[in-house]
Please model this.
Amino acid sequence: MDFDTVRFVTEAIRIGVRIHHHPSLPTYEELVSSGKLNMIRNEVLKSQLTIYVNRFQKYFEWGIYLDSRDYSQDFNKHLRQYFSPLMMRFLIDSHRENTEEQVSISQLKEMCLDMAGYLSDPKSLYHLSNVAEIHSILAQAYEGNLQNILVPLIDLVHKELN
Model:
């Protein structure tokens, strides 16, 4: 069989990991909370900073973002029926340490790998599809925010500093 079980399990576990960027602008937040935002004299820059912060606040309140937590939790709960949480930690650590190629099927089987059970469960595709789709939607939204808001904001800051 041409199926790479180690890679499949590794990718399935990775897709269930929910990592999201939470922008932090402590200097901006301090200027706002102290009432000193007017120290920024460039009105366009001030406006773009405010738009950036507000856009990400709305992003984190967006229904799809909030739903992604539930989808990820459901997906991971489903995975744990077939893959031990120890396996998940092992694969994440091996990826982080770039030792993935050393991971073997026998190591995974020692950690309660039930690949046949996972593949035969009709709910597996359902959960995998949900998480993949929600990640895709969030990635597109994040990329749009990055290109339409953050890149122009950084350009304004560069111009202001030069």
The chain has a mean pLDDT of 79. The CA atoms of residues 60 and 66 lie 7 Å apart. Helices lie at 5-16, 26-33, 43-61, 63-80, 85-96, 105-110, 115-120, 122-161. Residues 5-13+20-161 form one domain.
